[in-house]
Amino acid sequence: MAKLSRFLKIYTGAIILVFILVFLQSLSQLYLPTLMAKIVDIGIVQGDTNYILRIGFFMLIIAAGGVISTIAASFLSAKIGSGFGKNVREQVFSRVESFTLHEFDKIGTASLITRSTNDITQVERVLMLILRIMISAPMMGIGGIIMAVSKDLKLSLIIVIVIPIISIVIIYIAKKGMPLFKAIQIKLDKLNLVSREGLTGIRVIRAFNRINHEQRRFDEANTDLTNTAIKINQIMAAVMPIMMLIMNFATIAIIWFGGIRIDDGSMQVGDMMAFIQYIMLIMFSLIMVSMMFVMVPRASASAVRINEVLDTIPEINDSQQPKNPTTQRGFIEFKKVTFSYHGAEKPALSNISFSARPGEMTAIIGGTGSGKSTLISLIPRFYDISSGKILIEGVNVHEIPQKSLRAKIGLVPQKSVLFTGTISENIRFGKDDASDNEVLHAAKTAQAIEFISKMPDGFASVIAQGGNNLSGGQKQRLAIARALVRKPDIYIFDDSFSALDFKTDAKLRQMLKEETKNSTVLIVAQRISTIMDADQIIVLDQGEIVGIGKHKDLLNTCEVYREIVSSQLSEEELA
Fold this sequence. Notes:
Layout: H1 12-46, H2 49-97, H3 101-107, H4 109-151, H5 157-200, H6 202-207, H7 211-237, H8 239-264, H9 269-311, E1 332-339, E2 349-356, E3 361-366, H10 372-377, E4 387-392, E5 395-396, H11 402-407, E6 409-412, E7 421-422, H12 423-427, H13 436-445, H14 449-454, E8 462-463, H15 472-484, E9 490-494, H16 502-515, E10 520-524, H17 528-531, E11 536-541, E12 544-549, H18 551-557, H19 559-568, H20 571-574
Parallel strand pairs: 3-10, 3-11, 6-9, 9-10
Antiparallel strand pairs: 1-2, 1-4, 4-5, 7-8, 11-12
Helix pairs in contact: 1-2, 1-4, 1-9, 2-4, 4-5, 4-9, 5-7, 5-8, 5-9, 8-9, 13-15, 18-19
């Protein structure tokens, strides 16, 4: 939790004020039993009503001050805790947004969600507890011992016996609970993962009649988490009864031995009553400490997980001496590029060299797993290459700031990802300040205007989470419109026409020619009909380029390309 303390610097003044308020509250609790003893031993015994009223009024003032301090301390600690949680969530989200795809894969999306929510909540709760207990528990414990000893030294030997017993109980419970608290967060990750997969993949689950299988998976993860939580709660549930048992036995001992000392004339009744209250304060402070021992281990485990996210340094960072391209608008050049995924036995791409020019369409084709999507992921620096160079407008992508680099690119990913909101908002995701005319033009070019106009609210129609209320082709067309509205220097279409019918595909490609005539266009496609007219076709096989050229040239020179074409076109079409 130490590393997270840097987020508390802005609350330094408020934290000091909380400590002062808690200090005043503790003082009032320590002083009240002494005043009560005076009322009993002097006011009641001597029958002095004025003394009782005077001391009683003074007790009311002290108690009121204690109440005000408690309320104010609770309010401020809640504000600090909530503000701390807000700041940490912002930092975690910001750091996650800067992660490369490798870091996402390494930690896992389900785990990142748990760390951003449940883990931060655990630390937030403990922070509020610490702010209240860090001052009050030691002060009441130590102050209670001092005041109890001042009342009767011999009777204070009971404290010497009780405190070690309570300490042993607290240490034992903490030792038992720590491993379970670490385990429960990991099991919460697993439950989150299973739940997320079950909800996002519900169509596939139902289509293959795997509902019972998924229910068993969920039950296993849920039962595992529940059993661990039960073990923790059983251990924690034992804290209060044990403490109360020890406290009651201590009270019996005080009354027993205190009665003997009162009978001997060595102690007064009021002092014994005050002594009992001081013992209660000592016990209460130890109970609060035990609560910290219960909650801090879980928060500590959560803090470690949060720090793992905050301490993860993204592999892809901007250059210390950035350059912004100013010439050769949209020109892309690969020079002997090799790329390997982490832990892979061999490179996903090897010795890739080609150039893509503005005003031209470069198509990339190949079999499944040949590295097509990997290749285009290197242009926006989703991954960094192992060797070679990628130049954008004559400048190495490593030297271009990521924000500037990606501002030049209009990407339509293989999986069309849409966000909750209106159709207009999703298209404007490509350009925040796009006018209504620009949005309309992009939708027309992407052949999306037809189905948008049929929707009840047109561009104001709401898209469900993930675009579940749209067909695959509709989602693809909106994703294309989102890229078009940006008017970038480079267009990247990663198999973005696969869900379109041939008629819509043909219309869209015709419109794109005019729209992208001054930009560099890269298309990853499986359909030969989509790329036949490309200015340049790159054929990939097992991560290597096995052919570059136009359609007719590749039919004669590239065996891999000829096989792909013959699998899709008839002999007449080939001729």
